[in-house]
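Researcher: Go.
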Amino acid sequence: MAWGPVRSGRSLDRLINFSDAVVAVAITLLALQLVDIAGPQDGQTMWDVIQANWGQIQTFVLTFLVVAVMWSVHNRIVNHLIAYDSALFWLIMLWLLGFVFLPWPSRLYESTPFSSDLAQAGELVGPAMMYWLTLAYISFIGAATARHMTRHPELIAPKDRPYWDAVQRSRARWRGSAYTSVFLLAAVASYFLFYLGNYVLLLLIPLSLVLKPPPVIEPDPE
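Model: Structure:
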């Protein structure tokens, strides 16, 4: 049974459009961090500027790719909806909260494994852990959203329910939990050395392949 009143139609479209807009704004805020980087000064080359700001550039690219993956998963999930209840509404709001918050820890986390100056490594542990824990939070809420939809199939379009059930019977159902675990592991690794989380993130590549959802089977035309 759904939690609270069930809304559909235009109300659902507005919710999905709103979530897309919030994610777009969050990505824009991430990009604005690069706008503050000054160009080459006297005696500098562009390569000098890139080296001097490599931590900030690396963090932006890394965050952008992770956000793209998580939004892609979220988009694939909500495309199956025909309605939403109060619980699903607040799960989506909590998911968006993570994205709105993300630019701040991303700004603080400007480390790089190529840095030779480790004197301030201890000062970067806190920002690094906050960064990875924020990503873990976003991933966890996304997994909770999919779980809620599984428990309330009336929110899913009837034509999509067979495919949704097939996904939930496959290894893909563990994808959200696996991603969350990787981000938590990155946070733990950052506690010992701030940039180790960057390497832990590489685990997402094999996980994405192993936990890939089954292909969509289009019905035969009559």
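Model: The longest strand covers residues 7-8.
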